Amino acid sequence: MRARTIGLFALVVGLGAAAGLTAFGQPTPSKPTWLYGHDLRVRKGGTTDFNAETPKVGIEFFKDEPAGALVAVTESGSLAVLPVVPVSADGEKKATWLFGHDMRARKASEEKFSKETTKYGVEVYKDTATGKILYISEKGYPAFADAPQSFVSGSEKEAEWHHALVLKVRSPDQSEFNEKTPKFGVEVFKDGNTGGLVYISETGSISTAASPGTPVAKNSVKPPTALYGLELRVRKADEPNFEKDKTPHYGVEVFKDENAGVLIYVSQSGSIATVPVPMTDLKSNKGVKWTHAMTLKARPSGVKEFAKAAKFGVEVFQDNNSGYLVFISETGAIAVLAK
């Protein structure tokens, strides 16, 4: 067992009735409110045109009342979150395609880009219900971003490479980083259409952040600063109770990207989430607090009936170091809500 911050069974039981535990010391899942869903077409990297064979990704949107959040979940169990915004019951809920990018993402072991470097397709939509930009990668990872003040169709700009990072993630049985610690390559691009940054992991996971005021010189990119690690338990959708020796747990590391002034959370599945550095002092070794859980359903693209939807268990923890909420899916995918 690693000597780090752990979302343990014992921690969850210790939360008591105030956190929604049953008489048997187990958490009662909250019931999110389904709002709407989309089928999003996503071209594979290197593909120029949409056609009848272009893959689609099903994505659903829920209101999570305890967190004050809107949570998006894809048919593969990946997550994105943003503070809840008003969504009218009879208002327009469409996904309007804006533009797309090819983003190359090197593995941690790749020093230079080459013809072997994986190229991911990333599409960008306007989610009319929230007014936000919605990025979706060909691997089914979503990310929200603020919409630009103006965007002219037909004037799309390329995503410009900004900098790159290598992030290490300890597994639950590792207390320290060592030569066997898994690594993930992460590329950072500046989207010329929004002015913001897009982070993409070698797994195809994506996240967004504001662009720094001063560009980073390619010969002065700073390595990420490792801050602390978390270990979070997450039940499957059909797993009612936390079981000490059964419930899966995932390692999550938190880094500061010194080049952009943001925090990066990365799970051992290679899922990433970026958030601003807290305005207050960032702490370490302060632990996490389980807040609530839920089961989210996501229909595959082209499917209307929720009876055929995939179900994913999602746990929500407060990171006491940053004050942010960490959402983790049973797939190991994460999303973080800045509070």
Automatic annotation (TrEMBL):
Residues 1-25 form the signal peptide. It comes from the Bacteria. Keywords: Signal. This is Uncharacterized protein. It comes from Fimbriiglobus ruber.
